[in-house]
Design goal:
Helix 16 links the parallel strand 4 and strand 5. The chain is about 45% helix and about 10% strand.
Length: about 575
């Protein structure tokens, strides 16, 4: 039996890997190894035709190479410009951009260094191609290799489906996730997912547009020019903010504003769900834990503000066109203007929240008399170390870290506090920009949910799991800044209200109250800032599951009792 030409096989694989592997290797510092690993496996597929038909190696590899080159150079160019990965969110943004904006974009970024880089990238591919040679394997061996690389890449995601442990849709989604980092699937799968998610968004928008308006809506502020800002945070628990008594100084800017009386800090606000979509489905609509289905059958916050005559803006540093974010995309598409700033394929990639500052300034500068601006931050979404620039890496040692945490856990603990510190900076800049614009209005910030980062008395929990809840998963910041003009025309003493126990499941009533909007569905007893406020059981958990709801305050008492018993 003739010896296998392993060197020739290695050159063939290196050629096919080049078009995906180089891009994913450059993305490792910001996106981790998952994309690189997927590119490693998916590049094996292209060995199948050349080992089955070795006599046409040069021709087959040339055709495949041209396709891979044409698709990968788009991803490489995008990486060179934005230092991030091409994704279905980019495709969504492209299709949301008109021709003139596209022309301006190309003229801005099409530069000599970019062209030179593309030439070098292309020449390297051509050089690799010249090293390719036929690899002759016995037919059974060639067929076995071809079947193996196809099965391990295209068949493995369906193993659980055939074993009855997952459905076909979940298996296909797993296959898509594996294919997406590699050329040419990055464009193909990205476009297919874009089309699927766009269809879902359009269904939601169509259903929403058929809803009747809110009855007897009255804006008590009349036509006075104003700007109302809602900042939605991500994964920030109030229990890791010095603004709320945490020992480390993680919120120095907000703390300074509070000291001079610029902030109203509400101390006992929680999220009803520990997940972004599930929580905002309630916060931004009339749905709540007792009536979870109202978010589609009744108008939402965007409808309310539009009906009240506001020009609306949605500025987001969250991912856009993903299965999980379809509802968020629907909210954003209801705005008059939407800016999508995070084009990463996965959330576990770097996209510091400073990107929201420029579009926020542009929205403030719009001459519309009544503006409603939503800014959705990435906050402290995992991985925490990707959420802040290097200069905000203040907490690095063991001071303030629970003693029984391992070194690895301590690094995670510190990176979360650094993310909270950076979030404090971003919030202070947003407040500063609003203040400097001399706009009449207010800015309200809350986090969608909290996060448990080894702060539980047992120091064993990381992340969020509503089946095993902790207080940190649900305790969230709720902070209000008001302009001098707004304070003058809306004198309110929030002091007696700052310690009220409240769930953001009823947030739309608090927002309506602050904005001076009254309508038939408005419930003053559900507004945190209304004299008629009535405390109620603060349910947490999944309302769709039998016995899925828990009393948050009972949980807090149990956890505090355990903490007191812990030496």
């Amino acid at each position: 039996m003739e010896a296998i030409d392993w060197t020739g096989l290695g050159w063939l694989y290196l050629f096919f890997w080049y078009f995906s592997g180089i891009t994913q290797a450059l993305l490792i510092p910001s996106s981790g190894f998952i994309g690189f690993r997927s590119a490693f496996y998916m590049s094996l597929i292209w060995l199948a035709p050349v080992v089955l038909f070795p006599g046409f190696t040069q021709e087959i590899s040339a055709v495949i190479g041209i396709v891979l080159w044409a698709t990968s150079i788009v991803s490489m160019g995008y990486l060179a410009i934005y230092k991030t990965e091409f994704s279905q969110s980019v495709i969504f943004t492209i299709f949301e951009t008109n021709f003139e904006e596209s022309r301006e974009y190309l003229s801005q970024y099409l530069s000599l260094p970019l062209v030179c880089g593309a030439v070098v990238y292309t020449l390297a591919a051509c050089l690799l191609w010249t090293h390719l040679r036929p690899v002759h394997l016995p037919l059974p061996c060639a067929m076995g290799l071809a079947l193996f690389v196809l099965a391990i890449n295209l068949g493995e995601p369906y193993v659980d489906y055939f074993r009855g442990k997952s459905d076909f849709e979940s298996a296909t989604s797993k296959l898509y996730r594996r294919m997406e980092p590699a050329a040419p699937w990055q464009l193909v799968v990205g476009y297919l997912q874009y089309r699927m998610q766009l269809a879902n968004v359009r269904k939601l928008l169509a259903k929403n547009s058929s809803l009747p308006p809110l009855e007897n809506l009255v804006d008590t502020n009349g036509e006075v020019p104003r700007t109302l800002v809602l900042i939605i945070g991500e994964s920030i628990t109030s229990r890791r903010m010095s603004l709320y008594g945490y020992s480390r100084k993680t919120t120095p800017h907000l703390g300074a504003l509070q000291e001079i009386g610029e902030l109203s800090v509400f101390h006992d606000v929680i999220a009803s769900r520990p997940y972004t979509v599930e929580m905002l489905r309630q916060s931004l609509s009339f749905a709540n834990q007792e009536e979870p289905h109202r978010f589609l059958s009744e108008p939402n916050l965007m409808n309310l503000m539009k009906q009240a005559g506001y020009r609306s803006y949605w500025i987001t540093n969250q991912q856009t066109m993903t299965h999980r974010n379809t509802l968020m995309t629907m909210f954003s598409q209801q705005a008059d203007e939407a800016r999508y700033l995070n084009q990463n394929r996965t959330q576990n990639a770097s996209s510091p929240d400073a990107v929201v500052l420029e579009p926020f300034s542009e929205a403030l500068a719009n001459p519309a008399p009544k503006k409603f601006i939503v800014v959705h931050l990435l906050g402290a979404h995992v991985r925490y170390s990707l959420r802040y620039p290097k200069e905000f890496e203040k907490f690095t040692g063991r001071d303030g870290v629970p003693e029984n945490l391992s070194d690895s856990q301590a690094r995670t603990f510190n990176s979360y506090d650094n993310a909270v510190l950076y979030n404090d900076f971003i919030l202070s800049r947003l407040i500063g920009l609003l203040s400097e614009s001399w706009s009449n209005g207010f800015l309200l910030y809350f986090s969608d949910h909290g996060e448990e980062v080894f702060n539980d008395p047992a120091h064993e929990v990381l992340g969020r799991n509503e089946d095993k809840p902790t207080v940190d998963m649900f305790a969230v910041p709720f902070v209000l800044w008001r302009s001098p003009e707004w304070k003058r025309t809306h004198p309110s003493d929030f002091g007696p209200m700052l310690d009220r126990p409240y769930s953001n499941a009823h947030f739309i009533h608090t927002w309506s109250d602050l904005a001076g909007l009254v309508y038939d569905r408005f419930r003053p007893e559900s507004s945190l800032v209304n004299p008629a406020f009535k405390p109620r059981v603060r349910w947490i958990g999944d309302p769709e599951v039998k016995n899925g709801l828990r009393d948050f305050d009972a949980l807090a008492r149990r956890q505090e009792a355990f903490r007191d018993r812990t030496p």
